[in-house]
Each structure stands twice: as C-alpha cells, then as structure tokens.
Design goal:
This protein is α/β, with parallel strands linked by helices. The protein has 17 helices and 19 strands. Among the domains are: about 10-115, Response regulator (Rossmann fold); about 145-225, no CATH class.
C-alpha cells in the first residue's frame, strides 16, 4: 500500500509509481479524490504503467465521478475497471473505462457476478478491454528482472555454450533457445514480459565454479524434474560371427543329434546338406524380417547389481548431480566413480573398459545420452531402467509464480511442434528430449554375406570328405575290381588259367597235375574260384 497525500507534488507521485513498478504485483486498487486521481493516471500513463499486463481498479466514489473529470484524464484511464451503484440499491455495476465507461457486468448478493440482471441471466463478465487495448487478462504480477545462472562447461555445447568477445559475453544452445522461446510466449499470450540477464557460473579461470548442485544451492527449495539412464558398450554384431548358426542349440543337443546320424555315412552327409539348405532358407527369412523391422544392439552389461562390484568403474558427467546420486541412492562406492566432460571422453572410457582405466558404464541424463549415441550409434547402446529424478530443466523457487507459468508454457511450446522441432533440429538434427529412450538402431546394411555362413559351409564340406574317406566300399573296392577286370581281359596270352577243385566225377590226381603244370607254364595271372567246377 502506498499513501499519497493531497499536497504531493508530481515528482513524488512518480517516485511512488516507480516503487510500485519494482514490485511483482501488477494489480492496483485506487482510492482517492478526483483531484489527485486526475494527476495519478496521467503520470502512470507517462511511466508506461497503463500498458499491457497492468490492471487498475477504482472504487465506487471515482466510478460515479467519471462524468466530472476532464476528457484527457478519462482517456488516460482507458482499461480501468470500476464499481458503481445501480438504480437498485442491492445491485452494483461493473464498468470498464472506455470513454465514459461501459457496463461489463453486475454484482448482486444473490447471484454474484453476471453479465445481466434480467431474465436472461448469464454468468461471468462481458469482454473487458484492459490497459494497452489488450483483451488478454493480466496475470496480476510480473518479474522485474531475472538473474539466470548458466553452467559453464566444455562438453556438450549443443545445450549451453558461452562465447566471449572482448567485454561482451553471449550464450547459445538448446536450453538458451527454449528459455527465450518460453519468455516470448509468456509476453505474447499471457501479457507480461520476463526481463532476464544470463550470468555464467564460472571462477576466475573461466571454468565452472563447482557442480550443478553448487549452482542450485543459490536457489532455495529448487523444483525440477528429469529422466536419466546409463550407457554401456554394445556387443559385437552377431552377424560378423561365422559360427552364429550354432547358437540356437546347446552343445549337448548338437552331440546327441550327431550320434543319431553318424552311423550311416550316406545318411549323415544327406542330413548335413539338408541342414545347410534349411538354415540358409531360415536365415534368409530372418534377415529379411530384420531389414523390414529394427536391428537392436545388445548391451554387454545390463545388471545393476553386478556393476556395484569392485571390478567395475562407473562414469558420469563432470559437475552433474548424477555423481552424488550414484553414491548415495544407488550405493556405488566413491572409488568406483569417474567423471568426464565430453562425448569424446565418454567414448574413450567406454572403449577402454574398467580393466584398462576406463569404465563399464556411464550414467547421464537422457538428452546428453542421445547426443552421445548420435555420434557413436553403432558401438554403444543403453541398458537397464530409465530412472526419474531431479536434474535437466529450469530451476525456480517453489513459491515463485513463475514456476507454474513456465511449466504451462513449456507444455504449450512442445504442443506447437514446429517451434520445438525447429530448435531441436537446429542443434541436434533430431528429437533428443522425449522421455522415451528408443533403442539404438544399427545403421549398416542388414544383408547377409557368404562369410556369415562360412562355418556352416566348412562343416558341410568336412562332413562330406570324411564320409567319402571312411566309406572304403565306394572309394577302394569298386575301383580295384574294375582295374583287375580290365587288366585280365587285356592279358597278352589272351587266356585265363583256372585253379579248380576236383569233383567226385574227375580223377583228382591226373587233373590236378595238369592244372599245376599249366599254372607253372603260364604263371602270371591265377584267378581262384571257390565254387566247385566239374571238368569234362
């Protein structure tokens, strides 16, 4: 409340108005005589307090005296609301000072505020023209000037980047553009302008003066919301393994099947080649399905309990709140935690692994994770749950009315996809701030190559050669018999000597000597026939 005596000079009234301007409130109730009020509104108009975002309400005495004020004074009061008595004592008119005042509604003890008092009762007020010829209802308050603390860091310039040019310091990035867009929307749609000044949170050397928590400690009862996840090194793509076809069965099942088919060589070879054809056919179907859908990278580590062992180191963004969260809420040892500042450092640490002075996993906020995955999408993926906690966003005092308005306008800006998409594409080329963290997509070709089935072809070839080698019936006996037959039929003597056993009808002694003599004379090839032969 500001009391202005009747004898107050104009400069004193202006000083009182300036004091009101430094306050957050933008709604003023005026209770004074007509002589003083004529000076008040003229000076308020000169100081810009009869503009968009302000609301002035005059009491019944002034509302009933509008017709005695100079026209210039009344013109300076455009947009003021007033209350005056109606013909009936229990009814009050609510007027909007446009000219001599237009009635925008009524108030009665029985019905409260309404647009009329007749039989056509309608709740609420008619359209009000506020100061500055605005039809937007003022919020009733304003922030004279905001000091915005900006974290200064080397990594992730897509979000916030500080640039110094002599004595001039500018700030760019996704977060800065979102804040500026929200401020512009507040001014356009809600009728008040947020004046702000960006201040870098840095020390004398130009580096960040502490952590995010240190920055937020300067704002009591901070209110924020955020999502974060963790990164791990992805396993090698299985399509680069020629023995992948063995994975569908365990080794004991492979051995069991082998025993069933190895008893017969021809059947074994047939089964191997049928198996080869079947796997090729199924692999084609699977590869085609993979091309038409999504190939997922498989994480090397997705168990939070195993990460807590002393054999594993965990990374987080330097200065981020996640470090304290991992220690206090997720029960990681402080000696396990390592901080990094850039995506290049993330890549090096994850590539080296815990055994080579790196880390097994890195925990960070989702927008930063998306930026990293965009740069190294074929090598890393996310694993485990997405955890909700404080972090990424704008921080305000809990009692600040700006908090709720900023939240509403941020949602409004996100609903207008062109605005947010334009900002995100400007810095990232794609969406990075959605709550759902989509799996990393393998960007190379999903087509299968001959190499993918190298192991299968090796097994099939070896099985065929082995079957041919052990099958003596086909590899040795048949060719030898054919050779012998050929050599016998082409002997120089053109004759075949028979060594025969005598029968009961033959003189064994005489015939036997002839046979032996003949054998002795020719003596090169002798085919022994086991069956008895009758010689006449």
């Amino acid at each position: 409340m500001s009391a202005i005596p009747k004898s107050t000079e104009d400069f004193q009234i202006s000083k009182a108005l300036m004091k009101l301007m430094t306050m957050q409130t933008r709604v003023f109730v005026v209770y004074m005589n007509t002589a003083l009020v004529s000076r008040l509104f003229a000076l308020a108009d000169q100081n810009g307090m009869m503009s968009k975002g302000y609301a002035w309400i005059i009491t019944a005495g002034l509302s009933n005296s509008l017709n005695v004020l100079d026209s210039d004074v009344v013109d300076s009061m455009d947009g003021v609301l007033g209350v005056r008595s109606h013909l009936e004592s229990s009814v009050f008119e609510i007027i909007n000072v446009i000219g001599n005042g237009r009635v925008v509604g009524y108030w009665t003890p029985e019905k409260g505020i309404s647009q009329n008092i007749g039989s056509n009762y309608k709740n609420g007020l008619k359209q009000i023209i506020w100061p500055g010829d605005s039809t937007t209802t003022p919020t009733g308050w304003a922030i004279p000037s905001l000091k915005i603390g900006v974290p200064v860091k080397l990594g992730f310039p897509e979000f916030v980047e500080q640039r110094k040019n002599g004595n001039k310091t500018t700030y760019t990035g996704f977060s800065i553009d979102v804040f500026s867009t929200v401020s512009e929307t507040l001014n356009k749609d809600l009728g008040f302008k947020v004046l702000h000044n960006f201040i870098g949170f840095e020390d004398e050397t130009g580096l960040m003066d502490g952590s995010y928590d240190d920055l937020l400690l300067q704002i009591k009862n901070k209110v924020q919301a955020n999502l974060f996840s963790h990164l791990v090194l992805a396993k090698d793509d299985n399509r680069e393994n020629m023995w992948i076809f063995l994975k569908p069965w365990t080794w004991d099942l492979w051995l069991t099947v082998g025993e069933l088919v190895v008893r017969d060589c021809s059947r074994f070879v047939l089964v191997v080649w049928l198996w080869l054809a079947f796997i090729l056919m199924q692999s084609y179907n699977a590869s085609l399905s993979s091309i038409l859908t999504i190939d997922k990278l498989e994480p090397t580590f997705d168990n939070l309990e195993r990460l807590r062992t002393k054999d594993h180191f965990i990374g987080f963004q330097r200065g981020c709140f996640v470090g304290n969260l991992l220690e206090k809420q997720f029960n990681f040892s402080r000696s396990q935690l390592k901080s990094y500042g850039t995506i290049q450092e993330y890549h090096e640490a994850l590539s080296n692994g815990s055994k080579n002075r790196g880390v097994t996993a890195i925990f960070d906020e989702i927008p930063y994770v998306r930026v990293f995955l965009k740069a190294y999408d074929s090598q890393y993926t996310t694993a485990g749950l997405i955890y909700r906690t404080v972090g990424f966003g704008f921080a305000f005092l809990k009692e600040s009315p700006l908090f709720s308005y900023f939240s509403k306008v941020i949602l409004l800006v996100r609903e207008i996809e062109t605005k947010m998409d334009e900002i995100e594409k400007r810095y990232f080329g794609e969406k990075v701030t959605s709550a759902t963290l989509a799996p990393t997509i393998y960007t190379e070709s999903s087509s299968l190559r001959a190499y993918n089935f190298g192991g299968l072809f090796i097994i099939a070839g070896m099985a065929t050669l082995l079957a041919i080698t052990v099958s003596e019936r086909f590899i040795w006996q048949r060719p030898v018999a054919l050779v012998r037959q050929y050599l016998t039929s082409n002997h120089p003597a053109n004759g075949i000597e028979l060594a025969a056993q005598p029968t009961a009808e033959t003189d064994a002694g005489d015939h036997s000597s002839e046979v032996h003599q003949a054998s002795g004379n020719s003596g090169r090839i002798s085919v022994h026939i086991k069956e008895d032969i009758a010689v006449e």
